[in-house]
């Protein structure tokens, strides 16, 4: 109670000091935006947004993960994977969940992000197949592959196609792993590759409306192999 009264007294004194330093005039009161300490004639949402948002430089992998013309849910799962935030078995064990650490795609080694992409023999044969379709020289090492994805300097249609395939592989392997985990579903590498083919062709068709020439170049390359 004493503390409260003390604070109250201090605040009252403080406001009295401020109020007594203000000279009041007969003019009407007006509202004013002065975000930078300078009054603005108009209010700009864009400017206020720029001022309050977090100013962080974009991450170096931004364009490999949020590639233009990507499939949004593939971009999203790829981002989680890049940050190693997907609940792989090594993560779950770290959180204290008692589970069998073995990878359910190969039954051979512990499941980690780096194992899933693409040390696991199942994942590797799937990624090799997709890589062949987009004429990419695949790596079995996550860090190496991720670094290469950020450094592609090929023409736009080739680069976008590789990124589409890479993100689709991450998305499909992750969902497949979840399906097998929760529903005991089995799916062969070739049926997973068919699913990837459908997703990628649909995406390329979707690009046709916005950019017909890009779309047709990507489709030609996809059908080449
Ligand atoms: C993994 O092990 C389970 C049960 O032990 C078995 O049913 C399944 O076929 C095995 N999968 C592979 C790819 O070896
Ligand atoms: C993967 O490559 C990185 C460097 O790019 C290396 O440090 C790491 O040891 C490699 N991992 C494996 C399992 O070979």
Automatic annotation (TrEMBL):
Recorded protein name is BnaC04g21910D protein
What is the name of the gene encoding this protein? BnaC04g21910D
* PANTHER family registered for this protein in UniProt: REVERSE TRANSCRIPTASE ZINC-BINDING DOMAIN-CONTAINING PROTEIN-RELATED-RELATED, RNA-DIRECTED DNA POLYMERASE
Q: Does the keyword NAD apply?
A: no
Signal sequence residues: 1-27
Q: Does the keyword Signal apply?
A: yes
Q: Which UniProt keywords apply?
A: Signal
Residue ranges constituting the Reverse transcriptase zinc-binding domain according to the UniProt record: 43-127
- Report the source organism: Brassica napus (Rape)
One Pfam family hit: zf-RVT
């Amino acid at each position: 109670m004493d503390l409260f009264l003390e604070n109250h007294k201090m605040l009252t004194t403080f406001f009295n000091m401020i109020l007594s330093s203000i000279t009041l005039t007969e003019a009407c009161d007006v509202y004013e935006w002065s975000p930078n300490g300078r009054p603005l004639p108009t209010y700009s949402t864009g400017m206020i947004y720029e001022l309050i948002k977090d100013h962080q430089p974009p991450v170096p992998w931004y364009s490999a993960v949020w590639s233009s013309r990507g499939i949004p849910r593939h971009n999203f799962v790829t981002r989680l994977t890049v940050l190693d935030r997907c609940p792989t078995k090594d993560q779950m064990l770290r959180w204290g969940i008692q589970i069998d650490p073995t990878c359910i795609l190969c039954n051979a080694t512990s499941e980690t992000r780096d194992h899933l992409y693409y040390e696991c023999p199942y994942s590797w044969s799937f990624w090799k197949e997709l890589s062949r379709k987009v004429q990419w020289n695949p790596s079995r090492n996550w860090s190496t592959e991720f670094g290469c994805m950020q450094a592609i300097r090929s023409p736009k249609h080739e680069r976008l196609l590789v990124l589409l395939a890479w993100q689709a592989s991450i998305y499909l392997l992750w969902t497949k792993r979840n399906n097998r985990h929760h529903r005991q579903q089995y799916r062969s590498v070739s049926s997973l590759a068919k699913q990837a083919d459908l997703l990628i062709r649909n995406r390329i068709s979707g690009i046709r409306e916005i950019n017909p020439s890009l779309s047709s170049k990507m489709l030609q390359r996809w059908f080449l192999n």
